[in-house]
Design a protein that fits this description.
The protein has about 220 residues and is α/β, with parallel strands linked by helices. Helix content is about 30%, strand content about 30%. Helix 2 runs parallel beside helix 4.
């Protein structure tokens, strides 16, 4: 959790099925444990939300497509939560779904301009409410699966140059067992933490513990935060 211990925009990226949504929900629970009086907001899209994903009490789930003006209502929900309970974090599962909503379809901007606008809004959200804004996004799965080195790189994130420019930290998730049939299936996930400038700051291995319905650190690989 030390990676997310201050306000800022954090991006968690990885291939489909690596566990981004589950990890985001786990972070919501950790914020809840740190201060049970405050609330975390978890925004998701129904087409990508795992049906078995459980969110703890104190983490409010909000379906993105149900919001009339998506980014504007994310600000409103954040304001209401801050006034009513106190706000610990804003979590958005696959923030690119916001680009597919009616709000962004009606904006006469190029795709790059829409990405810039969205990232600017998310960065502003963090600054206005002084909380971590943590979002997930996919990578170029076909390209990763087609090369020898399956570990994701920053350049595998679509529009990575914009994501890097606006993010305080980018976390790349990787599970070797997804690619290597001979790899021991031990439920561990590698996390590599990069600064917005593209420098590797930290890396560690977490294991999912079903009995705890959460993650435990197996091996901190490097720390330079």
């Amino acid at each position: 959790m030390e990676v997310f211990d201050r306000s800022g925009l954090y991006v968690i990226a990885g291939v489909k099925g690596v566990g981004k949504s589950s990890y985001l929900a786990y972070l919501g629970e950790q914020f809840r444990k740190e201060d049970c009086r405050k609330q975390s907001l978890y925004f998701y899209h129904s087409s990508s939300h795992p049906g078995n994903l459980r969110l703890p009490e104190g983490v409010k789930a909000i379906e993105i497509s149900q919001l009339p003006m998506q980014t504007g209502h994310i600000f409103l929900e954040s304001q209401w939560a801050k006034e009513d309970h106190g706000l610990s974090a804003v979590l958005i599962d696959d923030f690119r779904y916001l680009l597919r909503t009616e709000q962004f379809r009606e904006i006469e901007l190029s795709r790059s301009e829409k990405i810039l606008y969205l990232l600017t809004r998310l960065r502003t959200l963090s600054e206005v409410y002084d909380v971590p804004v943590i979002v997930t996004c996919g990578v170029d799965d076909d390209y990763i699966y087609g090369r020898l080195d399956k570990k994701p790189k920053l350049s595998d994130i679509p529009d990575h140059e914009y994501v890097e420019a606006f993010s305080d930290r980018i976390i790349l998730m990787h599970r070797e067992e997804m690619y290597d049939p001979h790899c021991e299936k031990n439920g561990t996930t590698n996390f590599c933490v990069y600064s917005g400038a593209g420098d590797l700051c930290n890396s560690y291995i977490l294991a999912y513990i079903p009995e705890l319905d959460g993650y435990s650190c197996v091996k901190p690989l490097r720390s330079a935060l």
